[in-house]
């Protein structure tokens, strides 16, 4: 069976960007493919400690799993939920891959550049985390990895590391994830999803932004979230059309509307073609986001911690079984065993 895999860091509660860029696409794919695919949804808790954790890490981990249920995940026996730090093969493979990765390629990672920009001191985890991400993926031979646009560079790195390793040891030890264009096709989108900041739509919506109105948090009061949409920065072009280059604010709203309602972007764009009143579009998007948050937040409250723990423990048994076997294959190839 092929594997679809994703993970969400748990430094703070997720943003609408995390939700629309990764959680919802993963849940939609999981529900569609779970009969004959492994669906691996894991909590990259070790990734989370590369930067400040808001709140309690353990609580955030449980919350992270509940988010998928609240987004509509309907698990069956092929859906595996697990915590990275409970599966030691991730860290062990990471080390072996690091010895096959170059400082040059890691320093070209945009995420690393952004996260280290202007900082006097940067921890080594921030530099190395794409390699840990590669280990997360390669241990399970996951070909499909639904993520937002900002993570595609890391997927390309994962492919390169896998192919380099296979070449070095002369056999297909790793299954590389499919190319970016095929990831997009699988997700059913034309371009990588990048939800923009509401106040500065040139930039992505980011949980670490200090500007509260720039981001919608999934646990925001739905009324407050609607107000943030109503005050989103737009432009003075006066046309409602999808043009990320000249009208990133309006394009962002169209994109949000499409993803929240699970309608192809093109259909939303056609519906608004010829319209000029930005206020009307904002009203519509604000109302879509508000209803979505109301349902999501009500569902979040329904899932008990005990249920989450049961799923995690079962998932960790599976993840340890699969990942240990792959790690052993790698250790054999390298000569460690
Ligand atoms: P993280 O935790 O920063 O983000 C989680 C997911 O949310 C997506 N995302 C967005 N999508 C659209 N618009 C936005 N504004 C936006 N902001 C965030 C991210 O692309 C991501 O899919 N390294 C990863 C976590 C990870 C992982 C993995 C993912 C670790 N190992 C293995 C997949 C497979 C990260 O830091 O994502």
Textual characterization of the structure:
With 337 residues, the chain is an alpha/beta fold. The chain has two domains: 2-188 and 304-334, Rossmann fold (3-Layer(aba) Sandwich); 212-300, Tyrosyl-Transfer RNA Synthetase (Orthogonal Bundle). The chain is built from 14 helices and four strands. The chain has helices at residues 16-33, 45-48, 57-70, 89-98, 103-107, 110-116, 124-138, 152-169, 180-187, 222-230, 248-261, 265-272, 278-302, 305-334; strands at residues 2-7, 37-43, 79-83, 142-144. The protein has a four-stranded parallel β-sheet with strand order 3-2-1-4. Strand 1, helix 1 and strand 2 (37-43) form a beta-alpha-beta unit. Helix 7 crosses helix 8 (152-169), helix 10 (222-230) runs antiparallel to helix 13 and helix 11 (248-261) packs across helix 12.
């Amino acid at each position: 069976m092929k594997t679809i895999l994703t993970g969400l860091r748990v430094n703070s509660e997720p943003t609408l960007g995390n939700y629309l860029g990764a959680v919802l696409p993963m849940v939609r794919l999981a529900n569609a493919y779970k009969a004959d695919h492994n669906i691996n949804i894991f909590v990259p808790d070790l990734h989370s400690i590369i930067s400040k954790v808001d709140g309690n890490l353990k609580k955030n981990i449980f919350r992270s799993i509940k988010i998928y249920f609240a987004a509509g995940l309907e698990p069956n026996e092929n859906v595996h939920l697990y915590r990275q730090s409970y599966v030691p093969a991730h860290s062990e493979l990471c080390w072996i891959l690091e010895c096959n990765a170059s400082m040059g390629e890691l320093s070209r990672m945009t995420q690393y550049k952004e996260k280290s920009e202007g900082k006097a001191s940067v921890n080594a985890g921030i530099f190395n985390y794409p390699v840990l991400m590669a280990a997360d993926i390669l241990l399970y031979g996951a070909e499909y990895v639904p993520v937002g646009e900002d993570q595609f560079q890391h997927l390309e790195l994962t492919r390169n590391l896998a192919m380099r390793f296979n070449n070095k040891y002369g056999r297909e030890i790793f299954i590389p994830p499919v190319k970016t264009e095929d990831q997009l096709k699988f997700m059913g989108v034309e371009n990588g999803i990048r939800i923009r900041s509401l106040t500065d739509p040139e930039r992505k919506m980011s949980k670490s932004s200090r500007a509260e109105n720039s981001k919608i948090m999934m646990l925001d009061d739905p009324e407050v979230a609607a107000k943030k949409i109503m005050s989103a920065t737009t432009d003075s072009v006066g046309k409602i059309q999808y043009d990320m280059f000249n009208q990133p604010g309006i394009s962002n709203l169209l994109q949000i509307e499409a993803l929240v309602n699970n309608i192809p972007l093109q259909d939303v764009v056609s519906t608004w073609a010829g319209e000029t009143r930005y206020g009307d579009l904002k009203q519509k998007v604000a109302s879509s986001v508000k209803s979505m948050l109301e349902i999501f937040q009500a569902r979040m409250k329904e899932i008990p911690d005990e249920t989450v723990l049961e799923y995690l423990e079962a998932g960790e048994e599976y993840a340890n079984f699969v990942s240990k076997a792959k790690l052993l294959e790698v250790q054999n190839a390298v000569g460690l065993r």
